[in-house]
Write a structure and sequence with these properties.
This protein is α+β, with helices and mostly antiparallel strands. The protein has 2 domains: 1-135, 3-Layer(aba) Sandwich (Aminopeptidase), CATH 3.40.630.30; 142-220, no CATH class. 29% of the residues lie in helices and 22% in strands. It has 7 helices and 8 strands. It has an 8-stranded mixed sheet.
């Protein structure tokens, strides 16, 4: 079912969307390499349902992008970097046979259209996909975009605790916490060349209430970052 608001709707991305996706990537990460056509084509080939775009009802232009794949989490360590979770951005490690985790590799919103509810629509579409496929959860690495401003004052763990408590605002993590994600732990070298996060990320999780058991929630409550 399509996720939509009065101004935007979310649909599966298509091969012809690739130039617009790369354009948004350039706007969001002006100092970093963008997705390549080869990577985006691979995403379409291995897991088309997991590749989403948000589109303006008025202009018909793409204003947001979501990229994801399914992984078997036990194949990875907690501190596995983004490049390994995504097989260097190709998603060829996509594992729908045994995997129960939707790994959120990327969400981007056109900087000119932020604070318009586009991110919420994309996250809702991801949640709907997890429910449709009967997966257990979404996990992702939330790069700590605001940490560079506090690195001289606190450790990454201390920074995340302050964000979880609502005492600090992180442009990425604070939004995700409002989407009912929980922080499991903080890792280093997630994105090695990201000056904002200095490589640090919070591993976050949203659990699918349709299939989860009480045991699936137990590890959340054991995390020092857990807040009810």
């Amino acid at each position: 079912m399509m996720v939509a608001s009065e101004r935007y709707f979310v649909r599966r991305s298509q091969i012809q969307d690739i130039p617009e996706i790369i354009e948004i990537c350039s706007a969001v990460y002006p100092e970093s390499p963008t997705w390549t056509p080869e990577q985006l084509t691979s995403h379409q080939r291995v897991f088309p349902d997991g590749q989403l775009v948000a589109v303006s009802n008025d202009s018909k232009k793409i204003v947001g992008v979501s990229s994801s794949l399914i992984v078997f989490w036990d194949d990875y360590e907690w501190d596995t970097p983004w490049r390994d979770f995504t097989d260097h951005g190709m998603f060829t490690n996509h594992n729908p046979t045994t995997g129960k985790t939707l790994y959120g590799a990327e969400i981007m919103v056109d900087p000119k259209c932020q604070r318009a509810g586009i991110g919420r629509l994309i996250y809702k579409a991801r949640e709907d996909l997890v429910r449709k496929l009967g997966l257990l959860r979404i996990r992702a690495g939330a790069r700590l975009r605001g940490y560079h401003a506090y690195a001289s004052k606190m450790t990454p763990d201390e920074y995340v605790l302050e964000v979880v408590k609502g005492k600090l605002n992180d442009p990425t993590l604070s939004f995700q916490l409002k989407r009912k994600f929980h922080v499991l732990r903080v890792v280093s070298n997630y994105l090695r060349h990201d000056p904002e996060s200095m490589g640090f990320a919070a591993v976050i999780e949203w659990i699918n209430p349709d299939v989860a058991t009480e045991a699936d929630y137990a590890h959340l409550r054991e995390s020092k970052f857990y807040r009810d």
